[in-house]
Amino acid sequence: MEHTSSTPAPDALVGLVIAVDGTSGSGKSSTSRGVATRLGLRYLDTGAMFRAMTWWLLREGVDVHDAGAVAARCGEPDIVSGTDPENPTITVDGTDVAVEIRGDAVNGAVSPVSAVPEVRARLLDLQRAVIARETRAGGIVVEGRDIGSVVAPDAPVKVYLSADPEARAVRRAAEQGATGATDVAATQESLLARDRIDSGRATAPLVRADGAVHIDTTPYSLEEVIGLVVGLVEDADARVRAAR
User: Fold this and answer.
1) Which residues, 6+ apart, have CB-to-CB distance to 5 below 8 Å?
2) Residue 218 CA, distance from chain mean position
3) pLDDT at position 201, please?
4) Closest-CA residue to 235 (of 182, 184, 159)
5) pLDDT of residue 202
6) Is 130 exposed, middle or buried, given 0-12, 13-18 or 19+ CB atoms closer than 10 A?
7) Average pLDDT of each block of 10 consecutive residues along the chain (244 residues)?
8) Which of 181, 230, 163 is nearest to 24 (CA)?
9) Beta bridge partners of 18
10) How far, in Å, CA of 12 to CA of 127, rounded?
């Protein structure tokens, strides 16, 4: 679905952080990129950073189920995230890995890697550095699973997206080019398994952050969800102006 091109963030949005959390397949990426494009903001996909770390560990032959081994090596790769919502990039040691991090190998390994505290601490530093840089001259939409609760708990706009498991599975299967009933069922089980891992991990679990507005995206189109989030931003701006 097409969106209008980005324009420089208006003064009212400079320094703004929009935190978008939620379950896999709920529309976080499409919504976040759409909101960023519509408002002229930058965009950060924190999930891609965890995937990039996982890709590097697999390439290096590290056992991703050995938390100690992962912790010992996670400080080595140079992971750089581009913040253009219309062309987000992710590189590891200068290599573009945007395609590779969406493959089956990374899909099956990212959860145990993401649960390692040292990985989360390393990437948290990188995420906050990106946010600080981008908010000096504009604002940013940041998506993930712990943005409102850990990465940017002071974000003035926090959103938690969810959707019916079957709807999420249909969307994710379609993204992967599979639409058969068997494929959708397998995708749904994979998503639910990821939810259980993300919600149950000891460090930075998937939760609805305090103050986050919950949006069930099941009955809405992408453009409608983008509009709802943009409306939240406009409401927050109006409150700030009224308090001046």
Assistant:
1) 37, 86
2) 18
3) 64
4) 159
5) 67
6) buried
7) 42 83 88 97 97 98 98 98 96 97 93 94 98 93 95 95 81 66 71 70 74 93 96 84 66
8) 163
9) 141, 157
10) 23
State the pLDDT at residue 6.
45
Q: What SS3 state is found at 17? A: strand
Which domains, ranges and CATH numbers included, belong to the chain?
11-233 (3.40.50.300)
pTM: 0.84
What is the Cα–Cα distance from 48 to 99, expressed in whole angstroms? 11
> How far apart are alpha carbons 208 and 158 in whole angstroms?
9
Residue 21's identity, in one-letter code, is D
Tokens of 201: 């991990």
User: Taking a C-beta distance cutoff of 8 angstroms, is the pair 3, 144 a contact?
Assistant: no
Which candidate, 64, 30, 29, places its Cα nearest to that of 48?
A: 29
Cβ(31)–Cβ(213) under 8 Å? no
